[in-house]
Design brief:
The structure is a single chain. The chain has 84 residues and is α+β, with helices and mostly antiparallel strands. It has one domain (2-81): Ribosomal protein S16 (S16 Ribosomal Protein, Chain: A). The chain is built from 3 helices and 4 strands. It has helices at 48-56, 63-71, 76-81; strands spanning 2-6, 9-16, 29-34, 44-46. A 4-stranded antiparallel sheet has the order 1-2-3-4. The longest helix is centred in the middle third of the chain and has 9 residues, at 48-56. The radius of gyration is 13 Å and the shape is globular. The model has no long low-confidence stretch (mean pLDDT 82).
Amino acid sequence: MKRMGTNKKPYYRIVVADSQCARDGKFIEQVGIYHPLANEDKQVKFDKDKVKKWFLNGAQPSLVVRKLLNKNNFRFDRDLLTKE
């Protein structure tokens, strides 16, 4: 997650990044946004196709990103194993 926004009004970009890069540094692709101060139904937005593509390529989510995705009904085992 890449922190954006101003002091006391943060929002985060959910990004795919190399583990060697800094938290707010270079990233490969943005897959979603997290607004912790917004209404609960508008807090997290992510592109399921991009997330699924990166997980199938071996990307590992951080603990916070995993919790946000689970909270929004993206289950890793179920969603990654189902064929479209």
